[in-house]
Amino acid sequence: VSISKDMTKWVEEEMAFREETRKDSLTGALTRKHGERELEHLFASNGDNGPISLAIVDIDYFKRVNDTWGHATGDEVIQLVATAMINSVRSTDFVVRWGGEEFVIVMNQCSLASASIMLERCCNAISKISHPKVGVITVSVGLAQKASGEMPHELIKRADIALYQAKAEGRNRIVKSD
User: Fold this and answer.
1) Strand, coil or helix: what is 31?
2) Predicted local distance difference test score (pLDDT) of residue 155
3) What does the alpha-carbon distance between residue 97 and residue 145 come to, in Å, rounded to a whole number?
4) Which residues are catalytic?
5) What angle, 0 to 180 degrees and rounded to 10, lies between the N-to-C axes of helices 152-168 and 32-46?
6) Burial (CB count within 10 angstroms: exposed 0-12, middle 13-18, buried 19+), residue 110
7) Torsion, Cα of 64, 69, 72, 75 (10° steps)
8) How far is CA 24 from the centre of its chain?
C-alpha cells in the first residue's frame, strides 16, 4: 500500500518564500539579513586569500526627496539607484539594501583600486539618471578593503566612517578608508 501527495505547489511556494526573504521586494538587491549572511560566508571561505572590498552607498539628500515629493517618489529613486548599481557591478559582486536609502556593495577578489574604478562606474550610471521630479541623483560612498584578520563588522565600520567623511566633504564622492 502506498500513499503519495503531490508536493509541487508546496515546493513552489517554499521557493517563492525563500526568494522573498533573500531579495528586497522594492529593489531586487539582497536583503540586509541575507547580505550579512553572504558576507559572513565570504569571510569564512576566503580567509586572507585575496582582497575583499566593501562600499556603503547613500543617496544624497534623500530626506529632501521624501519630504518634497513623498514616499512614492522616494521609492522610485531607490529603485532607479539600485538598478543602476546592480547593472554596474560584476556578476560575482553583490548589492545589499542595507536600510532605507543606503546600500552595501561587496566585491570579492577586488582590490581597493579596482573597487574604486567599479564604484566610479556605478556613480556615473547613477548620475545619468534624471528623475522627472527629482532631477539628477547623486550618491556618497565609503569604501574599505578587508585587512588581514579583520571581521565583517570591522570592515563595515571603516566603510561607514569613510561614508560620513564623503558626506562631510560635500557629498557626491567616493572616500576610501585608510
Assistant:
1) coil
2) 97
3) 19
4) 101
5) 120
6) buried
7) -30
8) 11
In this structure, is the dihedral angle defined by the CA atoms of residues 113, 169, 127 and 163, taken in order, positive or negative? Answer: positive
Which of these, 139, 143, 89, lies nearest to 116 by C-alpha position? Answer: 143
47 close to 136: Cβ distance less than 8 angstroms: no
- Strand, coil or helix: what is 167? helix
Q: What is the pLDDT along the chain (178 residues), one digit of tens a residue?
A: 667 777 776 556 655 555 556 999 999 999 999 999 999 999 999 877 889 999 999 999 999 999 999 999 999 999 999 999 999 999 999 999 999 999 999 999 999 999 999 999 999 999 999 999 999 999 999 999 999 999 999 999 999 999 999 999 999 999 999 7
Give the residue carrying C-alpha cell 584578520. Answer: 149
Cβ partners under 8 Å of residue 44, min gap 6: none
